[in-house]
Structure formats: structure tokens, C-alpha cells
Amino acid sequence: MNSAADKNNGATDTEADGPRSIIVMGAAEHNLKHIDVTIPKNTFTVVTGLSGSGKSSLVFDTIYSEGQRRFVESLSPYARQFLGMLEKPKVDLMTGLSPSISIDQKSVSRNPRSSVGTITEIYDYLRLLYARVGEPHCPQCKKKIEPQTSQQMVDRVLNLKEGSRIMILAPIVRGRKGEYRKEFRDLLKKGFIRARVDGKLTELEEGMSLDRYFEHTIEVVIDRLAVKESERGRISEAVETALNMAERVVTIVTPDGDFTLSEQFACVDCGISLPEMEPRIFSWNTPQGACPNCTGIGVIREFDPDLFISDPNRSLNTGLFQTDQWKLKRVFTKNIVEKYGFTMDTPWKDMTQKQQDLLLYGSGSRKFEATWEGDNPEFEVQYKGTFKRPFEGWVERAKRIYKTTKSEYGRGILEKYMSAQTCPVCQGSRLRPESQAVTFNEKSITEVNSFSIKALREFFEKAKVEPRLKPVAEPILREILGRIGFLEDVGLEYLTLDRSAPSLAGGEAQRIRLASQIGSNLVGVTYVCDEPSIGLHSRDNIRLLKSLLRLRDLGNNVLVVEHDEETIRTADYIVDLGPGAGSEGGEVVVCGTLDDVLKSKKSTTARYLRGDEKIPVPEHRRQPNGRFIELRGCKHNNLKNLNIRIPLGMFVSTTGVSGSGKSSLIVETLQRELARRFHNAEAKPGKFDEIVGVEQLDKVIVIDQSPIGRTPRSNPATYVGLWSPLRDLFSSLPESLIRGYKPGRFSFNVKGGRCETCKGAGVEVIEMQFLPPVQVTCSECKGRRYNRETLQVRFKGKNIADILDMRIDEAVVFFEGIPSVHRRLETLCEVGMGYVKLGQPATTLSGGEAQRIKLSKFLSRPATGQTLILLDEPTTGLHFADIKKLLEVLHRLVDLGNTILVIEHQLDVVKTADWVIDLGPEGGDDGGYLVAEGTPEDIVACNESYTGQYLRELLEPANPDKVSSTKQSTVTIAGEGRSTK
Description:
- By secondary structure, this protein is an alpha+beta fold.
- It has 34 helices and 37 strands.
- The strands form 11 sheets. It has a 6-stranded mixed β-sheet with strand order 7-21-22-5-23-24, with helices on both faces.
- Strand 19 and strand 20 form a beta hairpin.
């Protein structure tokens, strides 16, 4: 593509259809140093560089932000009032910019009602398909429902208890917004005097209207009468009138409740009528379609018996139930358990199911007699009495107290023993039974919604439609299959439509949005992507790249922040920022085609691409020492009764194609179970049989890329624990002792030593009436955060504000004589954070920087050698050079005796691991098996391992006899063979 050759000359050239390049001049967001960048249009452009070099500042905070702002400003004043003002980025000039769409990892909905089907709009088309061509069935007898005549409706009414009073209503409006002035006026003209409006019976009067912004239901009272055979004619007339008024639907109000009869959908045998077939009855977000028990969520919060059991090895006498220790000592409990054949010293795991149910749910209606007496000799009055009552059980007792207590504190304690349980009415489908009774090709919408994308395509390709319904069904099926194809193109065929949005990984959510944008067929748009390769196995990456190139070929600009080597080599144009990170970055090192970048001598990226620098393969790998954590019978999500042993004291990598079950095994099962045991966490782990070897650990640490703080007041010094010893140091100086300054004097978060004009923030926020708020340096302290008196206290000639403004590598030398401070600073430098300032706001740190600061905090602590450190894709946002530093830190932690367990696709990490657990072989239903495990060389020898196929280019193949490779294989660990199934 010759446009890439225009990299710096011809920037102002234009064609008939507009500028040929996006020109950025004087970009100065965050650490950008007034850089100028020219990006050819209609290209696939990758912006790369070290973590913290300014990539996101250029792409998201400058180009995308300005494109979004200009688009909003092009709208009418009426539309802009709903969108608010967008802040102008710090840039001198930008030309050639088109409307921008961000496809990042943070845009996934956290609403539990949102699912893959709703995000992709496939479920919307499913609802339309079932409403137009679905076959209704009775939810009870499952017979196909045929049209119901008005005479059958009359017979149904006359089958009610004779003499019961009923009302016959015509539902003319059902769940719709509006004022309905005209409807009320017409009803009065026709002689109707009463209606049930939103469930309340009211008399009609002149000028009636409703709130236009809320949904309403209006049911006209046709007649009120008693059920008698002699009233057949009157009932028949009223039913016929209601059917004519309300689109062939009538509602009957009886003393036992209401029921609706439809001329189209009713079961003659069961007397059940289905509502009118329309898309909203298949939506769990509407009252017409949502399950009445869980209101469309699919789960309900209930007391979970598993959470009541503190330890299966404990008995009643040793604290089996931690919710109520005192009640365990009652003679009443002792007498009852002995009658059921066990004692107060019987461990939970040795009890029968009947005995366990007794303790959890009580004895039901069976009563027991017991004598209770006070045996405390300190009491003057000794109580004694006999009573007879059922045994309540701990779960039932918790339910009773939760319903009756008025104490929010007490309810909060009990809620720790509750978890999300599948709704017993809809079985997690979210829909009411009537909606689930409608089928298409013998499958309900709930069944189809549970299909994976791959299975969904196969279902609809084989679907048969009656000739008379084809004109209606074919356009809908075409749209569904089109969206399915886009999802398959980005490697998401393993996802199911009913997968909830909060459970999606950042990379999965980003690729779903990418698939949606491909389907929209927009032209002339600037698409901005943030590391779309996250969460993708090497096998799936090529499909993602094809999708990005397809967006480009439609006539769009595709701008990607990425470190993946294959993505960089595929790009039409590359912008490499650096040369370092933080204050040492923010410059354009090189930009141009791949050949231009490879010729660069200054570019760190180029050195890794050329092979001048690389991450080495360890000369010696650690061997299993006989210590393991073993998870048995893992069945969460798609895990196939998996048995996994994780060797301790080693660097262990869990890998596999996307959707193979890595997160289900490590995060949702192992991590949650360990968090429960070590930190009393409330999250319930995935289903498994047992875990062995936990007693060999003393703690579990999870290190991710979430921010170290959500406000500018958080910074590296406060996070790693530097700030307290620094404040103690300044408060112990002679000047502080003379003035009586305590450590709090040197905190910018409390009154005393801070500047009260800016409250220690260093900046003031000025509200602009028609513009976004503006932050300006505090006029009183000039951004120093402290008042004049506090800044007069100095250590080695520097005050507390000077320390905050000091780079970490400078601070290491400055505080060399103070061990408590120097040790923490040294570990920050070891993880490559020397360029960051001590007081740099946490909100300006990248994900990779935040992760390394967390690692340094752990490194600065005394090592116990019995810690398990879990990391989920730690290379996210990291350059080759950053990955090299990260691996050095991780291996150092293992050398101290700790265990590192990572979920990772990055081959440079996998090749340096001591032990690899490879799941698969595919994603979704075809995954969840142990494909192979062992050293990276063993994985390479496994022919069925996709990871091994890509590792083969980096490693010498191991002896194939060392590892078996099929789903039914046995694998050697420390001399023991075991089945993976």
C-alpha cells in the first residue's frame, strides 16, 4: 500500500474526497512531548512502544478524544444537551480526522441482564423470529396450542365456581407509554363508565389522562356479574364485546385471581391461554416476558448450605457451624443428633445425607422433647425446664432471622451465607413458562439461547420453515447468520448466547464489539482498538487480524495500540513511541512501514523484531519437588471432571486456546476456593470434588492490572508503604521536634500541614458555565500541596514536596542510608519503575505500571517461601522489553521458594515456564480437557496441543515418549501416571 510511503512528506496533500492522512501536531497529553505524527488514511496502523511510553495518551486521549468531541459538536444544540461537554485534548492542530469509534476493553456492560445475545443483537432477532413463526405449546401438557373460539372462552368462564362474582375486561392498552386522552374520551362516548387502570379500578371522567413517560395498562370493564348458567347469553355478549375492543383478547377477574383468554393461543385441556405473540414476551427485561420469581435475572439470592460449613473435617463440638457457637452446647441438640445415629463429635464428612439435612433444614414437623437447665454455678438462680418442639436447622433458622430482624448489621452478617442460586421456577432461563413453551424447529428460545455460536450456526443452517412463512423468516435468519459469521471471524465461536456480559473477559468483550462494527459496514470511520489480541491464543490471532484488515478494506482507518509481534508485522504503518517510559518517553522514535522500523537503530521494538534482543529460554528448568496442590473433579462451566496437580515452588503456566477453560479452572475455581480458605472471601468457587495440599501454603496473592488507586491522591509512594516511614522520618527531624510536628503534619490528606486552598491536591478545579471544568495549578502552594511552614522542614536540603517530585531511581540514591525506605525503592527499580515519580497520581499510570508496582510491594516483604501468586495474563499492556523485566521479577520470586501460577498465551512467557498445563483441545463444549502437561518441551512433543505447535518454533522438540497427548491420555508427573479424564 503506497500510502504508507507518505509517512512524513506530502502531509498536506489532498485528494478529491479529502485529506489523505490524519495529521497530529503538538500533542502534549500526559507525557507526550509536543509530538507531530502523520498517519495515512485507510490503513491498518499499529502504535507500539514500552509500557508508559505514551501510546494510550496519543491514540485514546488525543486522536479518539478529539474525533469524538468534533462529532458531538457537529450535532444540534438539542442533541448536545444530553451528551454533555467533552474536554479538548492538549494538541495544537489535528486535521483529516473522521468520526471515531473506540473498541476497548473497558466498555463491557456490568449489567447482569446483558448477555452475548443482547450485545450482538442476535437475541433481538431471535425474539422477532419466535414471535412471527414460532409454534406455541401449552407450558403444562406440551400440546400444540390451537386457536380458541369465543364459545370455548364462554365455556371456560361457566366452568368457574357457580355464584362467584367476576368482571369481564377488555385490555385495550397493555404496557405502553402515553397519555391516552383520546381513548378515555372515546370510551365515555360509547357509554363505558369504569376501567382498571394500572391495576386500580377507577371511574372514567372527562379530561382523564395519564403520565406520558410511564408504561400503562388500561382494561375496560365490560360487565360485572355472577357465574350462572342462566347468564350464558350475557357472558357471551360481554366476551364478544371485549374481543372486538382488545384485539381478540379478554381478561376475566375472579376471586381467585385473573386470567387472560386469547382467541389465538389457548390450551383447551389445561385452560391456559398464552399472551399475544409479540417480541416482548420473549424478553426478560419486560414484565410480559420476565420470570415472575427472579424478575428476569435467572438467579436469586438464597442461603447456601455449603457456606454454612466451615470445614468438612469439623464436628458440632469443634465449630462446624460458625454462625452460632452457643446453641451447639444445648442438650436439646445433643439429644436429637443421638436419635439420628450420630454424635456431637461426628465430622461433617462422615455424616449421612439424612443427618446433614437434619442439621441444615431441621426435623420438619417432627417434635422432640428435651430438658434444658442452667449449669453455671456463678448464677444464684438455676433455670430448668422441659419443652417439646421441632429442631429448626441452621439454614431454616437463618431464613427466619433474615426475614424478621430489623437490624441491618444482623442482615449483613447473614448475607455472607447467601449466594446466587439458579431460579427454581425458570431454571435460569429468565423467561416465564409461557414464553418457553413456544418452539421453532422443536427448540424453545431458551434452548437456542444456550447454544454456542458454532452450534447456533449449524442449527439455523439446517432449520426448516414452512413455505408460507419463508417470506417472514428468511430475512430474519439471514441477519442472524450474518452476525454469527462475524463472531466466528474473531474467534468467539465457543461463546454461548446466554453468557452474561459481566463474566466476559476484556478481550472477549472487545472482540464482540469488533464483530458488531464489521457487521455495521460503516465507511470513513476511525476505529481505535486497545490490544485486541488480549486473551487470544496464537492459533486464533490470525482470524482477528483478518477481521481488522476487513474493517480497513471497507474504507476505514484502523488504529491499534498493540505489542503482539504478529500484529506489528501485519500492519501497513507503525508508530513506535519511546525511547523510554514515563518522563523518558512521549517521543516518536520511528514511524513508517515495517521495513522502516526494522532499519531503526534507536527503536527498542525494532531490536526485538530483528532478533538483536530476545527473551532467552532458561538453561535449566526447576523440577517438581513432590509438593503439589491437587484439584479433583473440576466441573465448572465446560471443565470435564478435570483432575489437575499444580507443582509448588515452580513457575507454572496455564495455557490453551480461547474458551478452553483456563479462567474457569484457575480464577473461578482455584482462586475463589483459596480466597475462601485464607481470606474468608464470599465468592463461591466453581464446582469441584476436593482440593488437596492447601496446608502447604500460608497465603495467596492475586496480582492483576487494576489501578493501584482511583483518585489522584493515590501514588506509588502511598501504595508500597513508603509514605508512612517518610512521614516518620520528617517528623523526627530536629526542626520538626522543635516545632512539635507529628507525622500527620506531612500528610496531604488531612488538615494541618497541607495547603487548605487546594486541600492538598496541588490543583484547583474551576467550574466553567458552558465549558468543561478546568484544573489549574493551585495559586497558593503552586502545586506543592503543603503550606509554607511544612515546606520549611528539610532533609538533606529537600522538603516533603521535593521528595514527592523525585524520580524513584533518584530517590534510591538519596535514601541509601535509610533501610526501611531504601528497600522499597530498590524493589521498585528492580521491576523497571525507576522513571516514575514518587508522587505521580495513580490515575496516570498504565496497567503494566500498576501491575509492576504491586509486584514490588510484594517483593519488599520478607519471603516465607510458601506463597502462591496468581496472575491472569500479566503481559497485558507490556512491550517485549517490559515482559523481559517482568519475567526476571517472577523468576526471582520463585527462587525465594514461592509458586507462580499464570494464565497466559504469550509464548515468551510459556517458553520460560518450568511447568505448563495445556487445556483444550478447542474452546467451549469441545474444551475443558487436559491436553498435555509438563515442561514446554513436553508440550511441543504433544501433536494435539495447539500451544505446542506454536512453541515448536521457539524450542527444540522434546522426546515424544515423555508425554501422551490425547484427551484420554496419561501424563507423567514426578513418576506417577494419571488419567486426565
